[in-house]
Amino acid sequence: MSQVQDTRTNGRAMAALLKFINFVERVGNMLPHPFWLFWVMAILLGIVSWSLAGTTVEIPNSDKDVTVQNLFSFDGLNFAVTSAFDNFAGFPPLAIVLVVLLGVSVAEKSGILEALLRLTIVRLPKRWVTFAIAFSGMIAHIMGDAAYLVMIPLGALAFRAAGRHPMLGVMVSYVSVSAGFNASPLITPSDAIRSSLASAAAQTIAPEASITPAATYFFSASSSLVLALIITLVVELVLSKREDFRIVPGDVLDLDGPQSIYIEKHETRALITALVSAVVFVAIVILLLFVPNSPFIEPGQQLVQSVVFSEIGVFISLLFTLIGSVYGFKTGKYKSFGDIPRAMIAGVAAIAPVLVLFFAVSQFLAYFTWTGLGSVLTVNGAALLQDLQAPHFLVLLIIILAIAFTNMIVTSGSAMWAIFAPILVPMMMYYGIRPEAAMVSFMIGDSVTNAITPMSAYFVLALGYVQKYKRDAGIGTLMAFTLPVSVSILIGWTAFYGLWYALGLPLGPGVPLR
């Protein structure tokens, strides 16, 4: 009798969940493409600036006043036209993302990143296959959205090689890449975008502020291990027990993708050579840091103030270009030096939609700064928080939850941070919270609901792979797996952040939490 009741309860819960998912999908489908969303927001910004024109606020801890300007005035329209080129060319994430991507593209097209992922999986015992896939998903974030295309078939292949159902591998791969998207043991292009936007927002309060892509590296790298462990525990202790994941006669276990998970001898030799070249590169950079009259650090500067950290994107790009080139030539993937720029071109072409979005984002942010509305919102918001005397970590927790919900509808992390950073970062700074701490809250919220929102194109992609094994699988089939993992990651990652906050550990090199 209790089993019947449990079944009915589970059925009602799943029905309610699907109803909520359908609601999210309907609301999300009402939103325009992010490119047009920013232009709609620019129009709304103009209306608000017109209604509040002349409003003045005093900037805390300074003798400076900011008055709201009307974007729809002649001066506003003149600014919009005359600044358009400068707004785009000077958009902080544009240069650093392109520079980092040039190097990452060379590495990705050479095959070294996929080889490293396969090596990570192969080196661990079969009983560790879930952890291996989960942690490989964290490493794969260096590849951006391409991580989905690599990891999902690779996960199916790894589970099949371990004698387990490949459908489970598909789901583990998908949830690892999506729900933990902002955690990685490597610095990723997403770190470059976030830090650039955060740095620009922080400079409105403190012109000398500089937030590098390595600003949250310690926390992000540690989180990648924690999330891989959470995923492993939830999957192995609960989700893998489902009947769906038992192999029975007649199951179709093939999947398009790589045919072998193992590393060939020539790949191993190429990896070793690439690793040696990476060590030599790092050694040279360190040596140049400590030689007299170093070109990378001025006398009296701390290491974290050196060019290596302030311009870390350049060094990341050089490192990936080096190892990608060495590996590519060693394996025969690259046959001439002309293949290197061709790989870069392919990488840049792949993010053309992001560059188009950047144009709209850069104009909106410039208008937002010119009107002065950002100062009004941040000063009044900080004053409200001061009146409420809300504990700092409670504010950070609210940010996590708000972003997690918003992320189910606005799935572009860079677009969402472009909207929130100009308000959130200065407001937190006025309230005594470091911008990097607010950025970590965003990183958590922006990740955890990726795996459960039907607005994500990769949710549909993962569902398509699942249906190769279970033809009648639907949204509920995938959701029944991703929801428990996403909720567990939300709770576990937030708790880990709370522990990190309580201990006062630095978020990255030279970046205190408080």
Account of the 3D structure:
By secondary structure, the protein is an all-alpha fold. The chain has one domain (21-503). 69% of the residues lie in helices and 1% in strands. The chain is built from 22 helices and 2 strands. The chain has helices spanning 2-30, 34-52, 74-82, 84-89, 92-110, 112-122, 129-139, 146-161, 166-179, 189-202, 217-237, 265-290, 307-310, 312-331, 339-350, 352-371, 373-388, 392-406, 413-430, 435-448, 457-466, 475-503, and strands at residues 56-58, 65-67. A two-stranded antiparallel ribbon has the order 1-2. Helix 2 packs parallel to helix 16 (352-371) and helix 7 (129-139) runs antiparallel to helix 11. The longest helix is centred in the N-terminal third of the chain and has 29 residues, at 2-30. The termini are far apart.
Strand residues, percent: under 5%
Return the structural class.
mainly alpha
Overall tally of structural domains: 1
Supply Rg: 24 Å
Q: Spans of 5+ residues with little confidence (pLDDT < 50)?
A: none
Gap from first CA to last CA: 54 Å
The total of helices stands at 22
